[in-house]
């Protein structure tokens, strides 16, 4: 992929419309009559406020590469799950996915290039918006709208770079629109420290951009930005930057701002009382869902379908589904006895369901992921399925804020009552008893939080990044934490251990051929 971004094709125009559909109207009554979309160019497109709104909507829409296909029986999001050891597969047709499970992926693995291209498309769109929107004349009464749109562009750029720097380490740091004549059209990789500085600067700008405290329309909100700042600071405090105490303090403080808002506004931000509410499409962008990638079948249906059992009749479609990401039995068994998250059809898993979604109950023969099962769309007892799966994909939940706060506070050496309450809230919902605060040391409390993260955020694209920033992996047999290097994923990867090289993904071979300035390849991978 090159790093240029031109608005001269119908695909981008369609993205503008698709993004607008999911993010709400932009008051563009004359927008469709502006000009032939096949002739759109950046200099002629960014001329009125409606164009700015549409461009930001298109940038949000580009985030949906997350769920796009990565070959037969696979999608891009599986790259974040397969190497964790919490999942395995019931299919074997996709060699790239098999290599991810076996920890033998390389720069030819399709998912890796898809992630690179997808993230840099978001960055390219955001860079164009950041450069062009300031030159658009907004009515004086709408100046706050311009500030908000620029803040959204900077948040989305930070979102993309935060993924990129964690996946590949040093990456090209592109902050201006690129064309074939740009001096840095073949950019070199910037040190991670510089990438994180841009991420923090962008998020701080977004935090000050006048967003609503909370949004139910799919747009980023002030609380979502604060949550992301907490996660970025927490990541910077750990590996590889190892900023330590100063950044644990920043992470704790920013998470606490969200927690205090939730306490003052419990009907706006908080935990859902039950797990089923997390995959109820009527509750998208509500309460616990601080930020999600937006999906609607009008534009793009919910993409996490590879969690279905392999050809078992659990939906209106009958014996279908691919089973290319299913829980390992060892991970399922690692939950505490009585944990509601393991209860059939109540938490994250199901072991029985109803024939064709609405018929007789039958045993699935193994635990499968129920976390994203949309009963309204797919079928359940007494429910006529809509067949329209409009769930969103989680990116930041309030539960994450609670556990980030608890972990950061423990790293600071003090188990405050608030930190304890944050951990306890997660365990209370799981119907688990939490030892008294005095039973913990700072170290044992921190490890209790880590363990809770493994069990709370399984299959949400979070576990791999926890493994990398902590340099630790949950051992499902000992219930302790192994060092990352040398850990063996049970029941997956053929017993191959995690190696130092696995702390980063390789760069795509085709990208390195297109841009010789990307060398050297990440350590341990073929150039």
Outline of this structure?
This protein has helices at residues 10-23, 42-45, 49-62, 95-101, 110-132, 143-168, 192-207, 222-237, 245-264, 329-333, 375-378, 398-411, 417-429, 442-456, 463-470, 509-514; strands at residues 87-88, 289-293, 312-315, 318-320, 326-327, 349-354, 361-369, 393-397, 472-474, 481-483.
Portion of residues within helices: 25-40%
Looking at CATH, which topology of the largest domain would you report?
Answer: Serine Threonine Protein Phosphatase 5, Tetratricopeptide repeat
Counting helices, strands and paired strands, the structural category is mainly alpha
**Radius of gyration over alpha carbons?**
23 Å
Identify low-pLDDT runs: 1-17, 24-39
Using the alpha-carbon principal axes, give the shape: globular
CATH class category name of the largest domain: Mainly Alpha
* Alpha-carbon distance between the two ends: 18 Å
Number of helices: 16
Main sheet: strands, sense, barrel: 2 strands, antiparallel
Q: Could you report the average pLDDT, rounded to the nearest whole number?
A: 91
Q: Do you know the CATH architecture of the largest domain?
A: Alpha Horseshoe
**Content of β-strand:** 5-15%
Strand order within the widest sheet?
Answer: 1-5
Question: What is the string of helix and strand elements?
Answer: HHHEHHHHHHEEEEHEEHEHHHHEEH
How many strand units?
10
Subcellular location: Cell outer membrane
Protein name: RagB/SusD domain protein
Main location: membrane
InterPro entries: SusD-like_N, SusD_RagB_dom, TPR-like_helical_dom_sf
């Amino acid at each position: 992929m090159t790093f240029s971004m031109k608005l001269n094709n119908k695909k981008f125009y369609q993205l503008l419309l698709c993004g607008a559909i999911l993010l709400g109207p932009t008051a563009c009554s004359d927008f469709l009559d502006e000009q032939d979309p096949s002739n759109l160019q950046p200099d002629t497109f960014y001329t009125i406020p409606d164009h700015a709104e549409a461009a930001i909507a298109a940038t949000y829409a580009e985030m949906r590469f997350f769920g796009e296909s990565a070959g037969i029986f696979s999608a891009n999001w599986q790259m974040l799950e397969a190497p964790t050891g919490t999942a395995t597969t019931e299919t074997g047709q996709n060699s790239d996915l098999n290599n991810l499970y076996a920890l033998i992926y390389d720069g030819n693995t399709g998912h890796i290039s898809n992630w690179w291209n997808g993230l840099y498309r978001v960055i390219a769109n955001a860079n164009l918006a950041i450069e062009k929107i300031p030159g658009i004349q907004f009515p004086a009464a709408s100046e706050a709208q311009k500030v908000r749109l620029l803040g959204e562009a900077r948040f989305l750029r930070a979102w993309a770079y935060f993924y990129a720097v964690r996946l590949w380490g040093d990456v090209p740091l592109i902050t201006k629109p690129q064309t074939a004549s740009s001096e840095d059209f073949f950019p070199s990789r910037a040190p991670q420290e510089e990438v994180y500085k841009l991420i923090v600067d962008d998020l701080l700008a977004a935090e000050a951009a006048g967003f609503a405290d909370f949004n139910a329309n799919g747009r980023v909100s002030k609380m979502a930005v604060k949550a992301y700042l907490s996660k970025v600071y927490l990541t910077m405090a750990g590996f590889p930057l190892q900023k330590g105490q100063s950044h644990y303090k920043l992470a704790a403080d920013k998470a606490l701002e969200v927690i205090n808002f939730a306490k003052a506004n419990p009907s706006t931000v908080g935990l859902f009382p039950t797990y089923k509410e997390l995959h109820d499409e009527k509750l998208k962008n509500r309460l616990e869902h601080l930020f999600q990638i937006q999906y609607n079948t009008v534009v793009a249906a919910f993409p996490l379908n590879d969690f279905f059992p392999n050809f078992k009749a659990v939906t209106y479609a009958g014996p279908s589904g691919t089973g290319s990401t299913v829980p390992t039995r060892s991970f399922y068994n690692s939950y505490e006895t009585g944990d509601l998250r393991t209860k059939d059809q109540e938490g994250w898993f199901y072991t029985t369901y109803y024939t064709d979604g609405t018929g007789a109950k039958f045993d699935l023969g193994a635990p499968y992921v129920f976390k994203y099962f949309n009963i309204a769309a797919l079928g359940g007892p007494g429910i006529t399925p809509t067949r329209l799966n409009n769930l969103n994909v989680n990116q930041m939940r309030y539960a994450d804020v609670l556990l980030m706060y608890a972990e950061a506070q423990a790293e600071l050496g003090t188990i405050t009552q608030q930190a304890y309450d944050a951990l306890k809230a997660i365990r209370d919902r799981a119907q688990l008893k939490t030892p008294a605060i005095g039973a913990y040391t700072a170290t044992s409390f921190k490890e209790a939080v880590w363990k809770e993260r493994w069990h709370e955020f399984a299959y949400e694209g979070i576990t791999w990044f926890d493994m990398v920033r902590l340099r630790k992996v949950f051992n499902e047999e000992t219930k302790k934490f192994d060092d990352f290097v040398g850990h063996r994923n049970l029941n997956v990867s053929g017993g191959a251990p995690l190696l130092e090289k696995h702390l980063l993904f390789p760069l795509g071979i085709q990208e390195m051929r297109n841009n010789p300035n990307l060398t050297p390849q990440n350590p341990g991978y073929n150039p």
